Amino acid sequence: MTEPAVFFSYFISYSMMIGFFVRLVLRDRKLRDRIGDK
Amino acid sequence: MKPRLIFSGLAGAVLASGLYLAASHPPDSFQGEFARIIHVHVPAAWVAFLAFGVTMVAGLVWLATKNYTFDHIASASAELGVLFTSLALVTGMLWGDVVWGKAWDWGDARMASTALMFFVYIGYLALRRSIDDSEARAKRAAVLGSIAFLQVPLVYFSVTIWRTLHPTPSIRPDGPSMPTEQLKAMLANLAAYTLVYVVFVVWRGQQSSQETLLEERDNFDLGPAGTAIEPPTLGTTT
Description:
Chain A is an all-alpha fold.
């Protein structure tokens, strides 16, 4: 895991998955706000 | 606790065990430390194939039933397929750079066909965004999703049809071509990435359904067409 290519492969993979997860959570929050508007 | 959080936690735990197995097996006799990249590259490519397959099946089911749940699943699955294809491309380039000495080669059948598949599904997502009418969007996306899926077997078998730079599959019907420790790490990561995909696609699909319902509600509240236009008032022109 100390090789830069190996480290970056795992770093990019987990960053993308965590990024997508955060996007889903934020979108959920936005949807809840829209539902609560009316 | 919400099932969504339970499954997210489970996916995280399986992902962590996959990372542990990938980091702890002995270095490969030929590729050394770089063999560990395969444990993210192969699962990402597998999930991309799975996602595009689900996009096709969900599109076809929409065509047969006109149930918009399947259109939302097709859309969510295509988004994830593009995400995981980009991950497979980037990790493949990192691996190729250190093992082959070159990150990219247009002459390689697997690389070129995967890049083509990536751009076609970017087009699929662009098509969906360009159409406002939900029925027309679902119909055209289902047709494109079905045609685009023809590339998936082409990408998969490209390494056996055209013997270029990319290695042939490590897990074959006659048995795996890798040591047991590496195989365990690979299978754990395949399971982890598949679980992550399932959690994300269900969650994103549910959000798309909610967004559509909210759009319909907002459009309904606008009232009949034309009420927003003020009628002209006589005698006030300058």
